[in-house]
Design a protein that fits this description.
302 residues; cell membrane; EmrE-like
Length: 302
């Protein structure tokens, strides 16, 4: 019998995914200067399948076997990536990551309704703090300041984060019977069909025509989104959740936010104000009480 990977290895996989996630909005902002969002989405998922299908050709029958479950799963992922690439076009890279920092709060709430596990007082307080921080952040975007981004963009990103939180919770349940690579490939197939339909309906083929004049930076950004975000990150998340926890996976927004915050001012020239930091601190404090503190307490008991 093969030994299952331990939880420490699963956490390392999730940390790597968190770093990649932090780079995602930066590279997205770069390529969106040259291509419309749904074209970027369709191209990235198409190239993702070009990478995955040769690797998965012997296991494709399993994708068909679990088609009903993967259909729901794939739509959640499609909603997440489609709304993100659209929303980040209207807001700042760092703003998108602060909103995604609320994912562990959403995972906690969704996980509670699914499992009906007992809620600690500290976790309830964390949900409240995180909610206040996110409301402060969204209200601040009404003023259209550069640090908060636009209200429309932030609402779209919030809905995208809700889709991602639901994806994480559902992934844990489905991942008990389905291998991570099957989940990744099934999600990609659904996203490819969905993104192709959306692109043709809303953007026609104008974005594809711009590929002839795409700059080197645009091609490199697209390559990063395909290889690291679409393939590596989603696989690492599915694998880490299978052998770890959806709550821990959601907590990787710490890593993503730090990565984005450290690089966005240098690469994109975005500014972070005191008011912005206050909202971010409230959200991250809520995340800490909701997901990280309970894990630390369990370790102390052991």
């Amino acid at each position: 019998m093969k030994n299952s990977p331990n939880k420490e290895t699963a956490v390392l996989a999730l940390v790597a995914a968190g770093v990649i996630g932090g780079l995602m909005p930066i590279f997205s902002k770069i390529i969106l200067r040259e291509l419309p969002p749904l074209t970027v989405l369709f191209l990235s998922v198409t190239l993702m399948l070009v990478v995955l299908v040769p690797i998965m050709r012997r296991d494709l029958p399993q994708v068909y076997l679990y088609r009903k479950s993967l259909l729901k799963f794939g739509f959640l992922w499609l909603a997440n990536i489609a709304l993100f690439i659209i929303g980040v076009n209207f807001t700042t890279a760092i703003a998108s990551q602060v909103l995604y920092a609320g994912v562990p709060l959403l995972v906690f709430v969704l996980h509670y309704f699914v499992s009906r596990e007992k809620t600690e007082v500290s976790q309830a307080a964390g949900v409240l703090l995180g909610f206040i921080g996110m409301v402060l952040f969204l209200v601040g975007s009404f003023q259209r300041t550069a640090d908060f981004g636009s209200f429309t963009g932030n609402i779209i990103i919030f809905v995208a984060s809700l889709s991602w939180a639901t994806y994480l919770v559902y992934s844990k349940r489905l991942g008990q019977n389905v291998r991570p690579i099957i989940l990744t490939t099934g999600s990609a197939i659904i996203a490819w069909v969905g993104s192709g339909i959306l692109m043709v309906m809303l953007e026609r083929f104008t974005g594809l025509e711009k590929l002839r004049i795409l700059s080197l930076g645009g091609w490199l950004s697209l390559a990063f989104i395909v290889l690291f975000v679409r393939v590596a990150m989603i696989f690492l998340f599915n694998w880490g959740i299978k052998y770890g926890s959806p709550v821990v996976a959601g907590s990787m927004v710490y890593i993503s936010l730090l990565t984005t915050g450290a690089l966005t001012t240098v690469i994109l020239g975005e500014h972070i104000t005191t008011r912005f930091v206050l909202g971010a601190i409230l959200v991250l404090t809520g995340v800490f009480f909701t997901s990280t503190l309970p894990l630390l307490q369990k370790r102390r008991v052991r």
